[in-house]
Predict the 3D structure of the following.
Amino acid sequence: MTAKIAYDTVEVGTELPTQTFPVTRATLVQYAGASGDFNPIHWNEKFAREVGLPDVIAHGMFTMAEAARVVTDWVGDPGAVVEYGVRFTRPVVVPNDDQGALIEVSGKVAAKLDDQTVRVDLTATSAGQKVLGMSRAVVRLA
């Protein structure tokens, strides 16, 4: 696969489609099984509160991966992402109810770089608070 977005058609300021990702306790259990990360802060409310958290929180890598989906869905090829990094600024708190939490992610092309690449800056929020900082991907376009 190759990127479905052409470098020549993208400008600095191009906005990627915003996406919202639901997160429930069941999602966290599924992710724990897939990742092998069974830290009780991600599934045990009592333990999470004992260590000073407001409730169970989503895995940081899960949050990071959901944010990256905005980029991979836009570009059409996960292999086009050549660099990706974030800083974890706040946890995604996942209450024990049917709604769970929402992670809202938007992105914008911040720079056109060399070699057919662009830098995409992402904004990820949950419950109105920014949960990732310095969330950036470098993507090779067609």
About this structure: The helical segments are 25-35, 45-50, 60-75. The first strand starts at residue 15 and ends at 23.
